Amino acid sequence: MLFSAAATGAGDVWAVGERQDRDGRFATLVEHFDGRTWSVVPSPDPGTSGNHFDAVAAGGPDDVWAVGQRDDAASDQPLVEHWDGRHWSVVPVGVPGALFDAVTVHNGQVWAAGQTDNATAQGRPLVAHLRDGRWETTVLTGIGGAFTNLTGIAATDRTVWTVGTFFDPVTGNQHTLVARHDADGWHAVDAPSPGTGDAVLGAVSAAGADVWAGFAKTDGRDPLVEHHRDR
């Protein structure tokens, strides 16, 4: 299965996901399109029990990032790999008990988003930022709650946006979640959560002052698209 794609041009397209062997073990899957044909590109599988890619982003032909999760005997942890123009390699992040569902590259910086993934933290929103060769990870406080997942992230020159979903114990539903990062840190942004069932934002794209997010809502299984005009 392929879950995400990114391109630097018509002859340089990447798609990532997961594949399963006959024993039921999952491994990373990376495919590349050179303008004529698709081919599988070898990628590391560091997890002892399984490995998965959920998102890919490209900063250039020799700067491609894929994120997901690696499964180990003791605990699961985020999986981050980088393509340098010749091969894929694992990039340590140092956050046990977590996973990444989204990644973006902007001005040489990498942002990844997902959730903590352990019984104590209960799925809290997690963002990792790579700048000048150093990772900084942040569990967002005051945004969402228990069982929160970030599934999209986008960056502009002005700000970084992330979207996802959180569980509302009052209604028993998943509701939309939007947060932004600026000079003062991370802040929740009000976003519609229409319908009477779950409403989930699975991806976000930002260009200039315009921010678009969307996925689905469960009552009627309608698509959900939301727009924000940044001032």
Range of helix content: under 10%
Q: Give the helices and strands as they follow along the chain.
A: EEEEEEEEEEEEEEEEEEE
Number of β-strand runs: 19
**Could you say which overall geometry the principal axes of the C-alpha atoms support?**
globular
Query: What's the helix count?
Result: 0
| Average pLDDT reading | 93
Strand order of the largest sheet: 1-2-3-4
Described by strand count, sense and barrel closure, the largest sheet is: 4 strands, antiparallel
| Low-pLDDT stretches | none
Beta-strand fraction estimate: over 45%
Give the termini separation: 39 Å
How big is the Rg? 17 Å
Structural class: mainly beta
Describe the structure.
By secondary structure, the chain is mainly β. The protein has strands at residues 2-9, 12-20, 26-33, 38-40, 50-60, 63-71, 76-83, 88-90, 98-106, 109-116, 125-131, 134-139, 148-155, 160-168, 173-182, 185-188, 199-207, 210-217, 222-229. The strands form five sheets. The protein has a four-stranded antiparallel beta sheet with strand order 1-2-3-4, with no helix packed on it. Strands 5-6-7-8 form a four-stranded antiparallel beta sheet, with no helix packed on it. It has a four-stranded antiparallel beta sheet with strand order 9-10-11-12, with no helix packed on it. A hairpin with a 4-residue loop joins strand 18 and strand 19 (222-229). The protein is globular and about 45 Å long. The termini are far apart. The mean pLDDT is 93.
